[in-house]
Amino acid sequence: MANMQAHGPVALVQRRRWRRLFSPLPLITGFLTLCVVLMLVVILWNIVAGGVGRLTWEFLTTAPSQGMTAGGIFPAIFGTVFLVILMTIAVIPLGVATAVYLRYYARPDAWFSRAVQIAVKNLAGVPSIVIGLFGLGFFVQFVGVGIDKSFFGGEVTMGQPAILWASLTLALLTLPVVIISTEEAMRAIPTDYLEASYALGATRWQTIRRVVLPSSMTGILTGGILAVSRGAGEVAPIMFTGAAYFLPYLPTKLNDQFMELGYHVYVLSTQSPDVDATLPLLYSTVLVLLLLTFALNALAVVVRARLRVRQAV
Amino acid sequence: MPVITPHVSRTRPSYGLRPADRRRDRIMKYVITGSGFAAILAIILIFVFIGKEALPVLTSPEVHQEVTLSKMVTPLEGRAGKPKAYIWQPVSQVPKYSLPPLVLGSLKATLVALLFATPFAIGAAIYSSEFAPRRARELIKPVIEMLAGIPSVVLGFFALIVLAGWLKDLFDWKYRLNATTAGIALGVAAIPIIYTVAEEALRAVPRQYREAAQALGATPWQVARSVVLPSAAPGIFAAIALGFGRAIGETMIVLMASGNAATWSWSLGDSVRTMSATVAAEMAEVVHGSAHYNVLFFIGALLFVVTFLINFLGELYIGRLRRRLTGSAA
How far, CA to CA in Å, does A2 sit from each of A5, A9, A257? Predict the structure, then answer.
């Protein structure tokens, strides 16, 4: 006590400032944060520097040639786009309907809606390779072979890996993304809107169709974009449900196999007959895949920011 | 907004609803409730169909001619003159399906991943929730989101082509591709989830805790060390557990960067073959309905059960923690 009085409050403040500046935890954690940022920078820098040289219009629009040591990646881009379009058609209605159920039909404390929420969270945590196995066991071997048996007299038509099965498998993987994003947007809709609609004599379904869905469009869009970004980058679920090493033709039917960007990266990285010749192509393919996913993510951020602005107004 | 015209039926009072609207409302109720069931159905179907293809390993006499559960976990006769060992050789005269090397491989890669990811992810979480100025915090979030947005096949590519070379020079390894190379890339993939969950746990610590400590004269570092960290410790632990679940199921990175040799070795510098990579590498070539096919599904089932339990318990734990912290704040 006597000590404190002798030095006075100014010294106390000074000592505190000194401790604030040189205390170890902010320094250590700040340094660790910097390391995380650097990891991202190093990875991105490496891929951009290695891939930008060969990234030409020709590379994007021609097919691989000479045992995949030359040419472009057009079939892989085409397959990826086709795949995610089919996936979106499957995942958006189901995801939005689930979100609508959770928000407007289920009683929040009922065991069933709790179970749905737990299922959504757990579905998001299922490893993608397990989803791929499921796609093979369920879509290809059960549904596909079942269709062949009952409609095509046992002739192999749908009971084989195909773009339809791959897209449905991916839809399962991305379902939680759409549900969570849509639900978030619906949470932001003011209850006044709903009450106004009900007061006008609208039914619950009319309210959802005319009020809820239009108001949560940006959230649905965000979820869809994030799902596409996630789906375009996943390889494990499509490896045995439809992706092919190399195809001389583009997929046009639902039961065709297809080439895909992520799978193409894997194939070029590990199965190339001539690694040195493939490497520049590989870098550019990775860059295209990365640009695609990042562009989609950035788009989702922009859409979401718009939503915030509109809500603030 | 479209105007909904009230329509009063003359035959019976219906609160202004047309019978067609009512019918549509009832139908849509069933449709939407049915869709709500989809997520649960998906989980159940995954259980059923992975289980259906995995079960013959335990029950089918045909599969048992080739492999049984006890053969999968005990050392096997290899070449003549050599001692018994764990061998994974599914494509040979006498197929051998020892699981221990694969399980050990998965655990080794995951261990390296967590050792690598945890300090960075938790450190960054503490920094951004406790110390970071607002501008730094606004930078960290997109960085983590971008890191999470990198497809795992791209990380696998980076580990295979770039990182493996760097690490080989650094540690003077015999093999470029090994548990550590794959583990570090796997760690990069696990950082976002560990960071996100840990940061949320730190933020859930009520402001009053911090203010009380500050009022007693604690410095920011003392507040963090003696108040915030202990309160958030269970959440941070859950974050690491969820990171484990993410890393052990991850496939493309280990498939590309781990070397894929199924050896029984404790060294982190040796090649490993993980459970997930084994499924990915072999499923495409396997004959449908063969013992090998069923064994791969069995491995998939193991992965599914492990990750399911970890995620389920982790979420349960976090939910309880959040309720406790917010409850005590009120």
Answer: 5, 12, 84
CATH class of B96-329: mainly alpha
Give the C-alpha separation, B57 to B67, whole Å: 7
Question: Tell me, what DSSP letter sits at residue A102?
Answer: I
The closest alpha carbon to B297, from B55, B4, B30, belongs to B55
Å from B254 to nearest chain A CA? 12
**What 3-state DSSP class applies to B89?**
strand
Tell me the one-letter amino acid at A246. Answer: F
pLDDT at B329 over 50: no
* Contact status, residue A204 vs residue B245, Cβ threshold 8 Å: no
- Residue A38, chain B, CB below 8 Å: the answer is no
Rg for chain A, CA atoms, rounded = 26
CA separation for the pair B30, B9 (Å, rounded):
25
**Domain hosting residue A33, numbered range:** 2-49
Show residues of chain B in contact with A129, CB under 8 Å. Answer: 249, 251, 276, 279-280, 300, 303
The sign of the dihedral angle between the CA atoms of A255, A259, A261, A263 is positive
pLDDT tens digit sequence for B241-263:
999 999 999 999 999 999 888 88
Secondary structure (DSSP) of B315-326: HHHHHHHHHHHH
Record the tokens describing residue B95, joined without a space. Answer: 């197929």
| Alpha carbon distance A219, A166 (integer Å) | 25
Q: Quote the pLDDT of residue B112.
A: 96
Which of A221, A238, A228, A224 is CA-nearest to residue A294? A228
Please list, residue by residue across A131-153, b when 16 or more beta carbons sit within 10 angstroms of its beta carbon and e when fewer do.
bbbbbbbbbbbbebbeebeeeee
A188 and A246, same domain (yes or no): yes
Whether residue A260 contacts residue A231, with contact meaning beta carbons closer than 8 Å, is answered with no
When pLDDT is cut at 50, 70 and 90, the band that residue A2 belongs to is very low
**The two three-digit tokens of residue B235, written as one number:** 């959440």
Cα gap B298→B52, rounded to integer Å: 10
Does A41 share its domain with A60?
Answer: no
**A residues 122-141 near B, CB within 8 Å?**
122-123, 125-134, 136-138, 141
Q: Which chain B residues contact residue A202 at CB under 8 A?
A: 4
Residues in chain A within 8 Å Cβ distance of B131: 25-26, 29-30
Domain ranges of chain B: 96-329
Alpha helices in A101-253 (DSSP H): 111-125, 128-134, 145-151, 163-187, 191-199, 204-207, 213-215, 217-233
Joined tokens for residue B191: 């950082």
Give the model confidence (pLDDT) of A105-143 as tens digits: 888 778 888 888 888 988 998 999 999 999 999 999 999
Say how many Å lie between the first and final Cα of chain A, rounded.
56
The verdict on A150 and A293 lying in the same domain is: yes
Task: Tell me the CATH number at A76.
Answer: 1.10.3720.10
Q: Across the interface, do A137 and B52 touch by the CB < 8 Å criterion?
A: yes
Residue pair A232/A292 in contact (Cβ under 8 Å)? The answer is yes
Maximum Cα interatomic distance, chain A, rounded to a whole number of Å: 99
For residues A91 and A58, state if they share a domain: yes
Q: Residue B83 — pLDDT band, cuts 50, 70, 90?
A: confident
Tell me which residues of chain A, numbers 192 to 211, contact chain B at a CB-CB cutoff of 8 Å: 197, 200-206, 208, 210-211
Give bridge partners of residue B76 from the DSSP assignment.
Answer: B85
